[in-house]
Amino acid sequence: MTSEWRRRDGRIGVLTGAGISTDSGIPDFRGPRGVWTKDPIAELLSTYDSYLADPELRQRSWLARRDNPAWQARPNAAHAALVELERAGRAVTIITQNIDRLHQRAGFAADRVIEIHGNMFEVVCVECDYQTTMAATLDRVAAGEADPPCPSCGGVLKAATIMFGQQMDRRTTVAAALAAQTSDIFLAIGSSLQVEPAASMCAIAVDAGADLVIVNAEPTPYDSMATEIVREPIGTAVPRLVAEILG
Ligand SMILES: [Zn+2]
Fold this sequence. Notes:
With 247 residues, this protein is α/β, with parallel strands linked by helices.
């Protein structure tokens, strides 16, 4: 029976992708109406080697960060439903591909959110340990520094996100794999499941005995492993599934 997973006790792992944030006004970069589909330069802005090599590209990047819709975005019903799951006393860990911090802004415990692609609200130096906030760095941009260098070593600054061609943070990847491996229910929400290491988290969870539930409008490479596949819009599907789990 596909409905029986709802009754399972134990840990819940949740993997979220861009699809959970589109209702909050943050476009899906890869989707048919995605930013990269419309503007190939936008993809170059997220490529590590290009970013390091080209000051003009970095100037464009700071402006794109300033104009990112995540500054205005608010968590939606799906983010809120996952908070309810945690507040009801269930052990939940979220692994997110999103850099928008909407899970935390919805009220989900920050230490239970694993940001495998980093986040856009912090800034790091590529040369040294310097860290600061995006808001403080954008203040420097507004004050006239088109490509603000690291105040500590003069190196290149970037958002604390994982760009194309950049190494994932190993500790973060291990934490995500552990969360998948110890899940009894694993919900994959709004991810095309085509980018590693996020995609293989589903296989890790299933191999360890979890029921995999995929909530995504389009088919994914992991559909054949899923206990249940939900094509309903995320904004209604996630609150419904959470109510059924808690019911
Ligand atoms: Zn530095």
